[in-house]
Design a protein that fits this description.
single chain; alpha/beta; 4-stranded antiparallel β-sheet; binds adenosine-5'-triphosphate; phosphoprotein; transmembrane; transmembrane helix; ABC_transporter-like_CS; membrane
Length: 689
């Protein structure tokens, strides 16, 4: 068995173009003996999610991958697009125009089931930014506009061009429009191969028809190869598909021209009733869930009495039996033979070239400016990203200002100043966690666009930093100026500026830290919990709750307090306020206490270095976090294919030792197995010890 592990080398956003080449400008996709296995620990059965599937997709045609829920539609699509999850292994070949090709970042246009879009942008803005990110930079404004307008018309989005997409607080476009927009974004660069995962899910029949009709036009007009999984299409929608790959339990029930499926079912003795939707009929025949439901209904005596009425194979046999029979019949059918011949032809065509099909042709600078603008507009329009926090920051600053108003320099003011500084550095910075959900939304967009090769990791990180800077500056400067002037900390412009910069860098450090957390945790709930825990630890070791020299030396003092941005920020803030001031002694008549003395004796702060070094340390920590974020994202991309390859080889080596690990292809080769072997019959959940 040949192993093809898809998804590998990274070339940030570069690459090529729309023509694809081959087959007169189109792309032929072939998959042979595709098997996807979910290996389990040795004492549990191994699951074959897909079992030796073979097929092909051709230019100007649209193929439906159909089957009951859990039959493996998405898995097949992901296998073809090189997007399989890390815990499964895939064997078999995926060929593009007769050549094995790694479908890495940017190689494939893939529309996922979930519409991942920036809700704060309008339809036209979304398409325009996407066009600027990916189309060549030398296009004139009017050329770019023509492409955008053309895509809007192609996907029938004229009516909602200037409507916002919508999010939690903005009413937006409909589900069907969102889906068409997601497709529009992928066809902008005219990819020759387009994958879609259930593009009609959640849509009414009219919207579903519109979407599939648009896809059909995309395939026809641009000689594009369109492969789409679909759940249960209406008869009108079903009629729009040229080819059909019918799956059940990970096995091929039918593959060929969609209209021939009716003939196949008829030949197999289960003809589709004349007034019935063919796709409903096919799915009724192969959906084993009906067996379970019937058994339950019979058990609870809620089923109508059908004893004696056994006039069709459907009413007399179990679905599992019918499915097994269809799988078996298909293997020896003329449809399978035709498919084998065609696969052979396509696989041996010589001289076809396949370029990268997705990716970006825009320059790095163009990508940076476009992403920065888009991100800035999103931050401006998303109330939850910064505005809400800015409001809360100002309100809390006023509270701090009134509680610690005109704090003075008497003996008790020393500790109050320390407490006030500690609160500002601690609580105010802690509130930065509030922007995490919005950032996670932006990360989702990044992942989608990155997988489709729109731009690189570095551009994303830099653009996010630049676009957030004005908000961070506004937030920290307003907070610092309000508290500074109400509390009346150390007077002077430089002191005020330092306080503003200190808070700005501290908040930027927390944001950068949250980015790192977002890169490693799978969802925002976990991110917030982990982030809150992390910031809590940073607060604890910042030198306010426990003085720095008193922290346990091993671990907490060295290294934690040294890599803690809050400890440097707090030291800087205390120095900024106290150095140069004099405080009253506890008893009248005693000499005044210099701020330096209080810093070293009461607050445990060393005066070995200036406050500016403290600020520089926070800056260095921010840069380290951003670099770490970059490294994690890059590592995840680079290491994944390597880990997958090693995992696949090791697991296969292990599985091959198991006597019952058999492979059964619907297009039997020399290694053909009997159709009713254990694995072929039981399909998806077949135990393969
Ligand atoms: N990475 C994975 N880990 C564990 N199980 C998986 C994985 N991928 C797929 N499966 C399982 O394989 C089966 C097929 O999943 P898949 O998502 O391909 O089905 P589907 O036909 O697309 O279903 P639906 O129509 O409900 O989306 C399911 O039982 C699913 O739980």
């Amino acid at each position: 068995m040949e192993i093809e592990v898809v998804g590998s080398s990274m070339e940030g956003g570069g690459g090529g173009g729309g023509d694809g080449g081959g087959s007169g400008g189109g792309t032929c996709l072939v998959w042979e003996d595709l098997t996807v296995v979910l290996p389990n620990s040795s004492n549990k059965p191994t699951r074959r999610i897909l079992n030796g599937l073979s097929g092909f997709a051709q230019p100007s045609r649209i193929m439906a991958i159909m089957g009951p829920s859990g039959s493996g539609k998405s898995t097949l699509l992901d296998s073809l697009a090189g997007r399989l999850a890390g815990n499964v292994i895939m064997t078999g070949n995926v060929l593009l125009n007769g050549k094995k090709k790694r479908l890495d970042y940017g190689a494939i246009a893939y529309v996922t089931q979930e519409d991942i879009l920036l809700g704060t942008l309008t339809v036209k803005e979304t398409i325009t930014y996407s066009a600027k990110l990916r189309l060549p930079g030398d296009l004139t404004k009017s050329q770019l506009n023509d492409i955008v307008e053309g895509t809007i018309i192609e996907m029938g989005l004229q009516d909602c061009t200037d409507k916002l997409i919508g999010n939690w607080h903005l009413r937006g476009i409909s589900g069907g429009e969102k889906k068409r927009l997601s497709i529009a974004l992928e066809i902008l660069t005219k990819p020759t191969l387009l994958f879609l995962d259930e593009p009609t899910s959640g849509l009414d029949s009219a919207s579903a028809f519109f979407v599939v009709q648009a896809l059909r036009s995309v395939a026809r007009d641009g000689r594009r190869t369109v492969v789409s999984s679909i759940h249960q299409p209406s008869s009108e929608v079903f009629a729009l598909f040229d080819d059909l790959f019918l799956l059940s339990g990970g096995e091929t029930v039918f593959f060929g021209e969609a209209k021939l499926a009716i003939e196949f079912f008829s030949d197999a003795g289960i003809p589709c009733p004349s007034r019935r939707n063919p796709s409903d009929h096919f799915l009724r025949c192969i959906n084993s869930d009906f067996d379970r439901i019937n058994a339950t209904l019979q058990g609870s005596q809620r089923q109508w009495d059908t004893k004696g009425i056994c006039d069709t194979i459907l009413s007399c046999s179990t679905t599992a039996h019918i499915k097994g029979m269809l799988v078996h019949k298909f293997k020896s059918s003329k449809y399978a033979a035709d498919a084998r011949t065609r696969i052979k032809e396509i696989s041996t065509i010589k001289g076809l070239v396949v370029d990268r099909m997705g990716g970006s042709k825009a320059s790095w600078w163009k990508q940076l400016t476009t992403l920065t603008t888009r991100s800035f507009i999103n931050m401006c329009r998303d109330v939850g990203y910064y505005w809400l926090r800015i409001g809360v920051y100002i309100a809390v600053s006023l509270c701090v200002g009134t509680v610690f108003y005109d704090i003075g320099t008497n003996y008790h003011a020393m500790l109050a100043r320390g407490a006030c500084g500690g609160f500002i550095s601690g609580f105010m910075i802690f509130m930065s966690i509030g922007g995490f959900p919005s950032f996670i939304e932006e990360m989702k967009i990044f992942h989608r666009e990155r997988l489709n090769g729109h731009y690189g990791v570095g551009v994303f990180i830099l653009s996010n930093f630049i676009s957030s800077l004005p908000f961070l500056a506004f937030m920290s400067f307003s907070t610092a100026l309000i508290t500074y002037n109400m509390v009346k900390f150390h007077p002077g412009f430089i002191h005020q500026l330092y306080a503003c910069l200190d808070l700005l860098l501290s908040i930027a450090a927390v944001e950068s830290c949250m980015m790192v957390i977002a890169a490693v945790v799978p969802n925002f709930m976990m991110g917030i919990i982990i982030g809150a825990g992390f910031i809590g630890v940073m607060m604890m070791t910042a030198g306010f709750f426990r003085l720095l020299p008193e922290l346990p030396k091993v671990f907490w003092r060295y290294p934690v307090s040294y890599i803690n941005y809050m400890s440097w920020a707090l030291q800087g803030a205390y120095k900024n306020d106290m150095i140069g001031l004099e405080f009253d002694s506890e008893y009248e008549g005693e000499p005044k206490l210099p701020g330096e003395f209080i810093l070293t004796t009461v607050l445990g702060i060393s005066l070995d270095h200036s406050k500016w070094w403290d600020l520089a340390a926070v800056g260095a920590i921010i840069i380290s976090y951003r670099l770490l974020f970059f490294v994690i994202l890059k590592l995840k991309e680079q290491a994944k294919p390597v880990v997958r390859e090693i995992y696949t080889r090791r697991t296969l080596h292990h599985l091959k030792k198991r006597p019952s690990f058999r492979k059964t292809s619907p297009f039997p080769s020399k290694r053909h197995q009997p159709a009713h072997s254990l694995s072929s019959q039981e399909g998806l959940n077949s135990p393969l010890h």
